[in-house]
Amino acid sequence: MALKKTGSLFRFMLRRDRLRMPLWLIGITFFTLAVPVAFVDLYASQQERDGMAETMANPAMTAMVGPADLDNYTIGVMSAHQMLLLTAVVVGLMSILLVTRHTRADEEDGRLEMIRALPVGRLSNLNATLLVLCATHVVLALITGFGLYALGIDSMGLEGSLLYGTTLGATGIFFAGVTALFAQLFENSRATIGFSIAVLLVAYLVRAVGDVGNETISWFSPLNWVTRTEVYANNHWEPLVLMLGVAVVLGVLANYLNAIRDLEAGFFPARPGRKNASAFLQSPMGLALKLQRTGMIAWAVGLFVMGLSYGSVLGDLEAFFEGNEMMEQMLVAEEGYTLTEQFIPTLMIAMGLLATVPPGMAMLKLYGEEKKNRVEHLLGRAVSRARLMGSYLLIAIANGFVMLSLTGIGLWAAGDAVMEEGLDFGMIYGAALIYYPAVLVIIGLAVLFIGVLPKLGSIIWLYVLYSFIALYFGGLFDFPEWVGQLSPYGYIPELPVDDMAWMPVSMLVIVAIILMIIGFVGYRRRDIEG
Amino acid sequence: MSVLTVNNLTKQFGKFTALDGVNIEVNEGEIYGFIGPNGAGKSTTIRVLLGILKATQGSATIFGQDAWSDAVDIHKHIAYVPGDVNLWPNLTGGEVIDLFVKLRGSNNQSRREELIEKFNLDPTKKCRTYSKGNRQKVALVAAFASDADLYILDEPTSGLDPLMEQVFQQYVLEMKNKGKSVLLSSHILSEVEKLCDRVGIIRQGKMIESGTLGELRHLTRVHMLVETKQPLTDLNELKGVHAIEEKDQAVSFQVDAEALDNVIKHVSQFGIVKLESSPPTLEDLFMRHYEQKDESEVGGAS
Ligand SMILES: Nc1ncnc2c1ncn2[C@@H]1O[C@H](COP(=O)(O)OP(=O)(O)OP(=O)(O)O)[C@@H](O)[C@H]1O
Ligand SMILES: [Mg+2]
């Protein structure tokens, strides 16, 4: 009885997701299939691939993408090594967002209450959600698996291809289980998403640290199981059995917790809160800060830890470079810089882009509040639109500065500790902060959208993603120069290797200011929605 | 003296005309009832008055200042309660009330405590856990705790229980006694009837009626219940008589105000045994506009 009408709900969810699901699937499949095809072009001979293997054979890369059989670096092994883990993270993210959407978010907004008032079982919604996710991931496994095989690349056999696809699917099912569990524990969808993503990030970091240092540590991370399948090399299926086994346990646990709790309740009961507002919560700015506090702290900790993890790798990197003649030749092109220093811009661009996410979110929050009909409480009182938007903007600007600083400080602190001759703080901090103007441009873009075309605000994320692909993978795939120049990050001098260039940097700041001004003017003129 | 003036206000959302030449005037010390069916444009009017939406045409002024360009100045002297109160799930009711009062300016702790107690609200609970009525109470406490000159209330009682509804009415009347003005949009017609000095009815973005309740009543029908010695005949042939219904010996019907004289003359010929009359309720008034709408639509189709 507890599962009555699960089938109907299953179909209903598929209907609600009829656009969303195919977009995720197409996106992930496209990315998965495009990379090996590009590699075939770029690294046609085994000699070129061995060169690539040499570049990858260092702790920093291992921390980023995991271990691989570098002596047998075929197109297949290379694709799996460089893409599988990152794609698995994206699949995990997809599960987290979709499961939350159909469980806690629906429950929190009272939609589940209406469903539950129908002759529908108590556990039907949860299990329909899990079924939808399982079905989706089976489809994902099959289309990526057979798709990869269909590329007809020698080193990518049928078993390996199916293992590749199944690994992605299994990771998705695993994180569906994680999210289903958190959806029972927490009363709201933000906490559900937040804690699930935290698990994803911790899993990534644990395996990064473990892969570089101590393999036993790695085994505690489900994302390590992804790389241990050794797709296209030894094709191990066992880690996936482990993954799916744990996923089933998580699913059963979620069902149990769902069965014993009240609708709209969690397991962390609401404590009585403050009777009066603190002195802090007396202005639009105070309110905005209070609303975002938890999220911002989480991001700050996350980025600092990321800086630390990258930094801790620098020591190994140095030791590694010392013994490797070929590597020294490859990187020695720039006079006067140590190999470590030359490696820093690569790390910084990744961290700089990631550090753009929290300030971007802080700015877009203003429109989120509008959609939830909450800004009218403020604008209906003696708060001007300029002051409201200004509060959010100031927070976003400060947020970006703090986040970038933390990545730099983290990198320096750990790097300085592990390297023999230490690291220069000014050099590292400067290399991090140089991305600030680009972050400002993204914030400015968010302001512009909120003021003029608020519905399209999420486009800034596409732009950040584009920047990531254009610049981070630009080197790998030999993109033409203009591809990078379409992104503000493409104009940032790569400190410490490049010289400081004030001109492009000041131009970026000016562009950011102009975007912000247009956004402010638009915001003062338009209707508030809701 | 007029506190709030809306003059020929038009608001379009794309091609859709939500408001079409709306006129409203609220005078000092007056409670103005704003009624109309769902989607008529009440909330839209109010949001233009708050400077949240920009008028397509016409003007909206409060305290003689423009509702759009002087919004912040105006808001220092008004209190607003929306119909759908959406609050921040992770703040407590007490925090929200303080923030709201603070954002307007003044702060009156003892008044706040009194209101919280009267409305029976637990201010230490997170807004996430509040029912619709409780969220509305948060907005009401914040509004009445502020010392405003004009109160703009958009369906403020749609979630309140009858007891709280009374508390609400008591505070509205208290405001009126202090000489404050109130713009009250509501679907609870008995509430409007009880509180409001003047009423405006809006339908499909157009004001179709406005005036004091007395004036409006004048335009409408009186309910009558008559018992006569001889059977009452030919009633349906008189002008201005509607909804005739036989009830045992008696007949009930409605009479247009201007036809009253004629009808009484006619009825008295049959020897009146009993005669009851009641004034039209606001509901009748309201319903009559629906009927008119239906009739006019039927007429238009034929
Ligand atoms: N942002 C908007 N875009 C398009 N149409 C809108 C928008 N806001 C309101 N409308 C339309 O304007 C009309 C008037 O809506 P409004 O909310 O003012 O009605 P209302 O009188 O307050 O109704 P209710 O009694 O249900 O609260 C409706 O038809 C509504 O659909
Ligand atoms: Mg309304």
Account of the protein in words:
The complex is a heterodimer of chains A (530) and B (302). By secondary structure, chain A is mainly α. Chain A has helices at 6-16, 20-42, 46-56, 59-65, 75-102, 104-108, 111-116, 124-150, 158-185, 189-212, 215-218, 222-227, 238-260, 284-322, 325-331, 339-354, 357-371, 375-379, 385-418, 425-433, 436-452, 459-472, 474-477, 481-485, 502-525. Chain A has two domains: 1-266, no CATH class; 284-530, no CATH class. Chain A contains 25 helices and no strands. In chain A, helix 4 (59-65) runs antiparallel to helix 10, helix 5 (75-102) runs antiparallel to helix 10 and helix 19 (385-418) packs antiparallel against helix 21 (436-452). The longest helix of chain A is centred in the middle third of the chain and has 39 residues, at 284-322. Chain B folds into two domains: 2-216, Rossmann fold (3-Layer(aba) Sandwich), CATH 3.40.50.300; 218-301, YebC, transcriptional regulation domain (Alpha-Beta Plaits). In chain B, strands 6-7-8-3-9-10 form a six-stranded mixed β-sheet, with helices on both faces. In chain B, strands 2-1-4-5 form a four-stranded antiparallel β-sheet. In chain B, helix 3 packs parallel to helix 5 and helix 4 (109-118) packs antiparallel against helix 5 (132-145). The structure holds adenosine-5'-triphosphate (ATP) and magnesium ion. The site of adenosine-5'-triphosphate has 12 residues of chain B, from strand 2 and helix 1.
Q: What is the average per-residue confidence, as pLDDT of chain A, rounded to a whole number?
A: 90
Q: How many distinct folded domains of chain A?
A: 2
- Oligomeric grouping of the chains: heterodimer
Fraction of residues in β-strands of chain A: under 5%
Write down how many β-strands of chain B occur, each being a DSSP E stretch of 2 or more residues: 14
Topology of chain B as a string of helices (H) and strands (E): EEEHEEHEHHHEHEHEEHEEEHEH
The CATH class of the largest domain in chain B:
Alpha Beta
